Amino acid sequence: MFEMSQILNCGIDQRTLSILASLIENGVNPEALAAVVKELKRESEALKVSELCLIGVCRRLLSCEQKI
């Protein structure tokens, strides 16, 4: 299953895939689980972008302080 997820470029590590499979085996709705995973990935990417923007702002502020 892990090789298939890599071929499909799912971006899910082996441990996470194992947990997801276990959840499905224990009765979690696969479509609902997929929706949650997609939303978590989307939120994670948004946080990364926000973090990069904050780093850029901090660098600019530090650069301005050094010029003063």
Question: What does this entry look like structurally?
Answer:
The protein has 68 residues and is mainly alpha-helical. The chain has one domain (2-67). The protein is built from 3 helices and no strands.
Name its key features.
single chain; 68 residues; mainly alpha
Classify the oligomer: single chain
- Pick out the low-confidence regions: none
Helix proportion: over 70%
Query: Major sheet: size, sense and barrel closure?
Result: none
Quick synopsis:
The protein is mainly alpha-helical.
Chain-wise SSE layout:
Layout: H1 2-7, H2 14-25, H3 30-67
